[in-house]
Give the backbone structure.
Amino acid sequence: MYRSKVLVLVESTPLVRTIRRALFAAGCETKRIPMDVDALGPELDEGYDIYIVDGDAPSERVDPVLELLRTRVDPARLLLLSQHLDERIGKQIVEGAADNTLAKGGSYAVVREGLDEAELIATCRKILTGRIFGIRRCLRHGMVPIHKERIGRAQERHAALETLQDYLDNLDLPRSLRSSILTVADELIMNAIFNAPARDDGTPKYRDRPRSEDIQLETDEEVELRFCCDGQYLYLSVEDPFGTLDRDTIVRYIGSGLMRRRGQMEEKEQGAGLGLFMVFSSINQLVFNVQRKKRSEIIAGFYVRDGLRGFREAGQSLNFFFTG
Amino acid sequence: MTAIHAIKAYTVDGAITEDTDFSDYLGAPGEVLRLDLSGVARINSCGVREWLNFVRAVEASGGRVILERCSSAIVGQLNLIYNFTGKHGEVCSVLAPYACDDCGHEEDRLIELEAGADVEALTGPSDCPSCNAQMEFADLPDYYLQFFVLG
């Protein structure tokens, strides 16, 4: 990240201070400009590594800025900040303008508006370096162990979920939060077993098989569930060795959630759609790391420090990272 | 003439998943099914699909479902899935998570949902049975009862 250039279009001075401090500490140079297309135009000629924009600024100011950025900047380099991932921010994701949103709730929602500096630095580092995989990048410190469960058969997921349940019980989380976390893990594992595996020609291998079938995966198709907690967030990830997820599919699946619409299930609906929609609706952070045709890792983060209310108020971050 | 429908009551518990079979609950055409969902610990997307197929089958036979004592896992789905109760179903009551900051006691309290009821009043504080301090509703009222507020 050393000497990377970051352009900041954020109006709140305390928030700018947080961003500057965190990114300076991480070795970046930041420049703040007004939320204004006239100010932005010349800067685009200059070229920056990352553009940070406050998505909650009044729409008459932020919308023209985002419109200009959309025509000139790779969405992978645009970082949108929002207190809550609302319909307006969701639209930017759905329409492909931005790949990354960070919750301004971060770890402080209950206390004050503010970014989680660790999340900001980790996200910027991933954008700049392309080193995207690994749940440890999310952690605020490296001192906690990461638990791993390898899953080679569909029914083995129940044992993995029981291990996770024991872990959550020991963390003494609120019961309904435990239930949400288990459901998210279940959905991500099911997705990795039934939807991710593909043949050499790219056609899905198990997608049409009944979900109650105890599919035996090949050794090189096995799925790994990982989980850990740094005291502030609980993270879990599920990785598959296929890398078949693409941005359009993800956005199609979670689009209703992004646009804040309740889902209406059609009789014929099958596959990962509802599962990922449910996942998105139950998390504070959702990160898609994909090395195309090699591997996918989906990381779900849950703010656990302040009970259920803190979890609800901490906002939502969403990140897409694609390589290869 | 008003049709009189038979009412049957069942309890559903555990996890609702791809392995859940609701066919045992399907009875005579036109039956009203009162379902106690207090024991549903969680429900995954396959379970949601099984559930919706079941509700559709009940309604196709002229019946409907009445949901009682819905666990927080079910409340989550009511908030997420627009047609979770079918076209004619209703939700009578839910279990609401309460927690005591003093002694850490957690329990679910029954909330009866009557049309027009005030959400803040429904989720007001109550006495902790463990230490007599005040227990608070542990979630955000407008979030937890979104389906009831939005209708």
Remarks:
- The mean pLDDT of chain B is 92.
- Residues 45-60 of chain B form the longest helix (16 residues).
- The CA atoms of residues 1 and 30 of chain B lie 16 Å apart.
